[in-house]
């Protein structure tokens, strides 16, 4: 098995994504040493933020806009079917963050066999 490590496989929305949107904004990457390397053609999942877990959606990345110190933006061809919430609520000084998670589903693992496995 061979593959390159991926520094970031999960993050969150920085803004609410509405049904019909074809672009999402992710939280700013602030962890030192973490490389944002999501690329065009890779598949992502956006978690549901309502009571129906089936409202999680997968999309193929068609565009990536990212400069260090900013919120990464991803675009895709197929519009979202559902709203994905991103926000926070203040309860008497206790802030509750409620943001849809976004995960990178694509991996770059390659399985190879030795020469002897080709003879069978």
Write the layout of secondary structure elements.
Elements: E1 10-12, E2 23-25, E3 43-46, E4 57-60, E5 63-65, E6 73-75, E7 86-91, E8 94-99, E9 101-104
Antiparallel strand pairs: 1-9, 2-6, 3-4, 3-9, 5-6, 7-8
Structure summary:
The protein is an all-beta fold and 120 residues long. It has one domain: Elongation Factor Tu (Ef-tu), domain 3, CATH 2.40.30.
The residue-averaged pLDDT reads 89
CATH topology: Elongation Factor Tu (Ef-tu), domain 3
How large is the radius of gyration?
18 Å
Question: How far apart are the first and last residues' alpha carbons, in Å?
Answer: 20 Å
- What is the 3D form? globular
Helix content: under 10%
- What is the strand tally? 9
Q: Estimate nothing, just give the exact number of structural domains.
A: 1
Structure, explained:
The chain is an all-beta fold. The chain has a single domain (10-107), classed as Elongation Factor Tu (Ef-tu), domain 3. It is built from no helices and nine strands. The chain has strands spanning 10-12, 23-25, 43-46, 57-60, 63-65, 73-75, 86-91, 94-99, 101-104. The strands form three sheets. The chain has a four-stranded antiparallel beta sheet with strand order 1-9-3-4, with no helix packed on it. Strand 7 (86-91) and strand 8 (94-99) form a beta hairpin. It is globular, with a radius of gyration of 18 Å. The mean pLDDT is 89.
List the main descriptive attributes of the protein structure presented here.
single chain, mainly beta, Elongation Factor Tu (Ef-tu), domain 3, 4-stranded antiparallel beta sheet, 0% helix, globular
